[in-house]
Specification:
2 copies of one chain form a homodimer. With 320 residues, the first copy, chain A, is an alpha/beta fold. Chain A folds into 2 domains: 6-120 and 306-316, Nucleotidyltransferase, domain 5 (2-Layer Sandwich); 128-300, ATPase, nucleotide binding domain (Nucleotidyltransferase, domain 5, 2-Layer Sandwich). Helix content of chain A is 35%, strand content 19%. Chain A is built from 9 helices and 12 strands. In chain A, the strands form 3 sheets. In chain A, strands 3-2-1-4-7 form a 5-stranded mixed β-sheet, sandwiched between helices. In chain A, strands 10-9-8-11-12 form a 5-stranded mixed β-sheet, sandwiched between helices. In chain A, strands 5-6 form a two-stranded antiparallel ribbon. In chain A, helix 1 crosses helix 2, helix 6 (221-229) packs across helix 7 and helix 7 (233-257) packs across helix 8 (273-286). The interface between A and B is large, with 42 and 42 residues.
């Protein structure tokens, strides 16, 4: 058996930091988490993370059995290992996270953003096994992307490539997006975008809907799904609008890297065929003839509970 | 001196096929051309091309001094070496051009489309020397693109990646594009798109313009440039609309591959600041804050008369 048979995957979110020790077959053999927001001082955060990683590594032979650490972090820069000006994290400015954690544990560490981590996970353990060219689209609170070309995640000149959620779908009077621009696909096709579409349609139409029984400001994309499952026409219309917008953008994305597949990851994928059918329809209506009906759209098959940790850990296998 | 110090570059167009022998410093040391349309039989075309290449190679030591052939061809597929269903060439279906020419001359040959060839040329001899991540945009009869990531042209799963001219800029009632879709940026920002915008503005407005002195159906992008140079407001407005559309699309392109620069190549670049200023303005207005004022937009500095041959020849240096 190899001296260092494991990698560590970290999924850092604004609320929690979840991590796990992963073996070469993609099994998470130990896991834990700490509260990100509880450590306004980065040094305290690193100390607590080190302590907890050391604790869960103990039963498998200690941290010296871990070959490398991969972390998916908001605004994580693969080239520098820094977290750069992440609005939802407690630490401001530029945080040299990879270096701090690597120094603290004595293990090489690499980081990227969560969508790129998902793409790596998909290629290593998921629906993109065997694919060299695909695009991972994460549909959650936001819309993220990880682009894989010739088997490698695209980082670009500065390390921040792959922000397809911030390409425009509406060019005139589009919704304000969290990035500061207007009309980005993220403002429409994220879970929050879908909820907003629901509220807008309730306010601006008279169409009867189960969604009208809910308090408008509490409606979530899950409520829209539940209503669609019950045959609610307005709910179906919301998914149709959202899916068609995504499909139109996918047609644009295909012209860039001519992927074998576009793979959907994240909470919104639970909407199943309600979101998938209009995506595929609009994508094939809008793509150049050479790609019509040729590019697959697939749901991620990373195991849901461990997907983020697995994705991040996949980065670490590339560390020598 | 090396046994095989030269490469051959071929620029195949619907009308002419231009080719030249290029040395390692990017000097075209011999050149010629044949009429593409004069050979409806591909075998006759290959025979004539072989004869003419052999003739110009004679003074520099013969075709055995040529290491490889790079060809930029409409619908050229880098992976297969085939020209696939090119609408403007005399040969229908799939033509195994690289194999036919290679067999005929006894020299390895590789091909791609003209925009990818321009990107290779830019990186080898032009404005992208030293860059690893950039996007070449060709503004001519059409709008093409060659995307370079980590020093390599992106070909994608099928060999046809990099068709950014066919991403949408207008989603409702857009102009019909040559590709069969509607609203593509090519339908607005190509030389023919600019001429069409001129005709539309002449017909739908009363704004005085020097362009009204011309026959509407004969107006070219060159006429619009000449009018702008003379202070014509309508002509300036045409460039402003066109440049802003391009800039808005460039903001989307940046989210994909985070390039160091976007480089403009082709006839429309003669419009200089009339097209450049609105591009840069709209790009920076529409891009995510992390890229604002960070991505360069440059004109190609490949020598104009030899640019296409140089670009194609650059492909051949990569052959063993």
């Amino acid at each position: 058996m190899e001296a260092k048979p494991y990698v560590l995957g970290i999924d850092m979110g604004g609320t929690n930091t979840v991590f796990g020790i992963v073996d070469a077959r993609g099994q998470v053999i130990a896991r834990s988490s700490i509260k990100t927001q509880a450590y306004p001082d980065i040094d305290e955060y690193i100390a607590e993370l080190t302590k907890e990683i050391t604790r869960i590594a103990d039963p498998v032979g200690g941290v010296e059995k871990i070959r490398g650490i991969g972390a998916g972090c908001p605004n994580g820069n693969y080239y520098t290992g820094n977290i750069e000006k992440a609005p939802n994290l407690p630490w401001k400015g530029i945080v040299p996270f990879a270096k701090l954690l690597s120094d603290s544990l004595g293990i090489p560490a690499v980081l990227t953003n969560d969508a790129n981590a998902a793409a790596m996970g998909e290629m290593t353990y998921g629906a993109a096994r065997g694919m060299k060219n695909f695009i991972e689209i994460t549909l959650g609170t936001g819309v993220g992307s990880g682009i894989v070309i010739d088997g490698k995640v695209v980082y670009g000149h500065d390390g921040f490539a792959g922000e397809l959620g911030h390409t425009k779908i509406v060019r005139q009077n589009g919704r304000l997006c969290g990035c500061g621009q207007s009309g980005c696909i993220e403002a429409y096709a994220s879970a929050t975008g879908v909820a907003r579409t629901a509220r807008e349609l309730i306010e601006t139409t008279n169409e009867p809907s189960l969604l009208r029984d809910l308090q408008a400001e509490t409606i979530t994309s899950k409520d829209v799904f539940d209503a669609a499952e019950k045959g609610d026409r307005l709910a179906k219309k919301i998914f149709d609008m959202t899916g068609r917008m995504l499909g139109e953008k996918f047609a644009d994305f295909i012209t860039f890297s001519a992927p074998e597949a576009i793979i959907l990851f994240g909470g919104m994928t639970k909407s199943g065929h309600w979101i998938m059918d209009p995506i595929v329809e609009a994508m094939n209506e809008n793509v150049m003839p050479i790609w019509k009906d040729k590019v697959k759209v697939l749901f991620s098959d990373l195991p849901e509970s461990d997907a983020a940790v697995l994705g991040s850990s996949a980065l670490a296998w590339e560390l020598n």
